[in-house]
């Protein structure tokens, strides 16, 4: 049985300082509030085929505010 | 200006960021200190410390208990009783500490998000094209003096809503604040007073005729239902002008200095325009212009060093960006570097408010330059000079245009 792996991102609001690097790299996955602080769009699910872009956003956050979460979903 | 101080013999025990060796090439000095210290000390400026690793620079940036931002430019003069008391400081919010810092910063942040900054892009692009047009027909010219230095000053003057023809006089002001830090205190005072006078005239003019610019925005802004005191408005205007000009000028100049010497990087940027985002970040990492400063708030032991209340601490983000413990091959410029958590705009609560503006200016300045002059080189590498003090960038950058003159 092959599991199906999904990835999502989460921005820690206590760490984000509004550098806006994630938004600049991947504007479809992150959104900014009025103060320029970042939040993942919706549940932060990384679209298929765009994992490398998500990783780039994570690896460019100076505050280490973004985590990449891997989830394995059992497939029937 | 470096003549006023004796030359440094040992940077570990007697560092001076205005010393000629530091100004010419600080990277080997920081490498050496990283091996030997990594927190250097100096009795100059009344006592100062210098951590040079990414880890220690981060630790200080996040520590608002042992360090205050009340003064962020190291000079012979510490803030005295005549200055606005902490936590406001003379130029809020850079000189403010929490919790006041957060209140002032939140007031300013909306003006610096990507959307309002994008509105300044067409002006910036047009300005770059005009400046390049003025170099038309020249085989050799100074990229720092004739191109880079004009871009941020005219953009910030537009942003603040001052007359464009005043742009040139601001460069003298900035030199005073950032470079001439070893002037006698009385002389610095006098010249600061002239800056305040200019700002007061602008405030009066904007009060009489409000318009859609940053100065009017500050005059309208409220904290806790109250308009800001005039000292606060003036301090923030001075801050935005100073912080927004020398810094971006330096980043644009240093990037052109790099590209002049790396034809392979120029060709890559021309062939892969999509690389510009990571390229701009990599150039900011490698040639980060800004070193900040803090004052120690209380006597305490910092990793075995006896920090004393009132000591200066230089916070060299450019040194953090070259730390091999944080970046692979830190001295190598890789335009497609993937892992790049650089600290060019600082870390923590004082993250550069204008980082979106600076990035836009650097990107547009490089795009327009490369579109017009895809091939160029340094006319004379020995003729390049660098600024002294806490903002590092080329101040003389003679380049020779290769091929046609565009």
Q: Quick recap of the structure?
A:
The complex is a heterodimer of chains A (76) and B (406). Chain A is built from two helices and four strands; from the N terminus they run E-H-E-E-H-E.
Relevant terms:
heterodimer; A: 76 residues; alpha+beta; two-stranded antiparallel ribbon; B: 406 residues; 5-stranded mixed β-sheet; 3-stranded antiparallel β-sheet; 11% strand
- Tell me the radius of gyration of chain A: 13 Å
Mean pLDDT of chain A: 93
Largest sheet composition of chain A: 2 strands, antiparallel
> What oligomeric state do the depicted chains represent?
heterodimer
Strand order of the largest sheet of chain A: 1-4
Apparent shape of chain B: globular
Number of strands of chain A: 4
Distance between the termini of chain B: 39 Å
Describe the structure.
With 76 residues, chain A is α+β, with helices and mostly antiparallel strands. Helices cover 18% and strands 29% of the residues of chain A. In chain A, strands 1-4 form a two-stranded antiparallel ribbon. A two-stranded antiparallel sheet of chain A has the order 2-3. With 406 residues, chain B is an alpha+beta fold. Chain B contains 17 helices and 14 strands. Chain B has a five-stranded mixed beta sheet. Chain B has a three-stranded antiparallel beta sheet with strand order 4-14-11. Chain B has a two-stranded antiparallel sheet with strand order 5-6. Classes of the chains: A alpha+beta (76), B alpha+beta (406). At the A-B interface, helix 1 and helix 2 of A face helix 15 and helix 17 of B.
């Amino acid at each position: 049985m092959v599991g199906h792996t999904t990835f999502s991102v989460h921005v820690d609001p206590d760490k984000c300082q509004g550098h806006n690097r994630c938004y600049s790299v991947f504007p479809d996955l992150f959104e900014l509030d009025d103060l320029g602080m970042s939040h993942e769009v919706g549940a932060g699910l990384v679209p298929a085929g765009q994992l490398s872009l998500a990783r780039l956003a994570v690896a460019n956050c100076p505050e280490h505010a973004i985590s990449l979460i891997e989830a394995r979903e059992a497939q029937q | 200006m470096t003549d006023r101080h004796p030359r440094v013999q040992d940077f570990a025990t007697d560092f001076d960021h205005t010393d000629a060796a530091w100004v010419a090439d600080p990277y080997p000095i920081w490498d050496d200190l990283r091996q030997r210290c990594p927190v250097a000390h100096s009795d100059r400026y009344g006592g100062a410390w210098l951590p040079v690793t990414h880890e220690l620079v981060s630790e200080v940036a996040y520590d608002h208990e042992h360090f205050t931002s009340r003064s962020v430019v190291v000079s012979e003069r510490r803030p005295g009783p005549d200055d606005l008391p902490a936590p406001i400081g003379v130029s809020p919010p850079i000189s403010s500490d929490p919790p006041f810092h957060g209140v002032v910063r939140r007031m300013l942040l909306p003006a610096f998000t990507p959307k309002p900054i994008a509105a300044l892009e067409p002006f910036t692009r047009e300005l770059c094209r005009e400046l390049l047009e003025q170099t038309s027909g020249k085989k050799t010219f100074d990229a720092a003096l004739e191109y880079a230095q004009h871009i941020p000053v005219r953009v910030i003057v537009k942003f603040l809503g001052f007359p464009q023809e005043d742009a040139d006089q601001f460069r003298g002001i900035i030199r005073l604040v950032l470079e001439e830090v070893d002037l006698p205190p009385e002389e610095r005072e006098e010249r600061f007073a002239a800056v305040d006078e200019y700002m007061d005239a602008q405030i009066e003019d904007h009060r009489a005729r409000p318009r859609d610019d940053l100065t009017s925005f500050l005059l309208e802004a409220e904290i806790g239902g109250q308009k800001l005191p005039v000292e606060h408005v003036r301090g923030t205007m001075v801050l935005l002008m100073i912080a927004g000009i020398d810094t971006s000028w330096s980043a644009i100049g240093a990037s052109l200095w790099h590209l002049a010497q790396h034809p392979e990087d120029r060709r890559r940027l021309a062939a892969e325009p999509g690389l510009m985002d990571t390229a701009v970040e990599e150039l900011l990492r490698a040639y980060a212009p800004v070193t900040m400063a803090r004052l120690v708030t209380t006597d305490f032991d910092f990793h075995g060093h006896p920090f004393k209340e009132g000591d200066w601490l230089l916070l060299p983000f450019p040194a953090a960006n070259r730390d091999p413990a944080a970046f692979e091959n830190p001295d190598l410029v890789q335009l497609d570097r993937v892992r790049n958590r650089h600290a060019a705009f600082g870390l923590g609560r004082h993250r550069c408010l204008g980082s979106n503006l600076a990035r836009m200016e650097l990107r547009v300045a490089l795009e327009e330059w490369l579109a017009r002059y895809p091939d160029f080189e340094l006319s004379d590498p020995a003729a390049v000079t660098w600024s002294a003090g806490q903002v590092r960038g080329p101040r003389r950058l003679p380049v020779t245009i290769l091929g046609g003159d565009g």
